[in-house]
Amino acid sequence: MEDSGRGGPDKRRDDQNSVRVTNLSEDVTEADLQELFRPFGHVTRCFVAVDRETGENRGFAFVNYAMREDAERAIRALNGFGYDNLILRVEFAQPRAER
């Protein structure tokens, strides 16, 4: 298996079960996302994108589920959901392009 360069092949996110969440407030944390997404299934990973220079939240995140069905359920329930005075956009993440 090819190494992703980010901790080895077993540290890669599973794109098939990965949900991209956009329109997040700058105050949201990974713990907040765990709490929001956990009711739909086993969350294996939460990642909030931050600016490398400023450390500020970039307004989007990825949430990975163990099962694709759980990800689908979360998308149906949370896409368009009002959270922290913003309307979330929740969809399947696009597969990463090979670099």
Which SSEs are present, and which pair or pack?
Elements: E1 18-22, H1 30-37, E2 43-50, E3 57-65, H2 68-78, E4 82-83, E5 86-87, E6 89-92
Antiparallel strand pairs: 1-3, 1-6, 2-3, 4-5
Defining traits:
single chain, 99 residues, alpha+beta, Alpha-Beta Plaits, 4-stranded antiparallel β-sheet, two-stranded antiparallel ribbon, 2 helices, 19% helix, globular, disordered N terminus
Characterize the structure shown.
The chain is 19% helix and 30% strand. With 99 residues, it is of the alpha+beta class. The protein has one domain: Alpha-Beta Plaits, CATH 3.30.70.330. The strands form two sheets. Strands 2-3-1-6 form a four-stranded antiparallel beta sheet, covered by helices on one side. A two-stranded antiparallel sheet has the order 4-5. It starts with 17 loop residues before the first strand and ends in a 7-residue tail after the last strand.
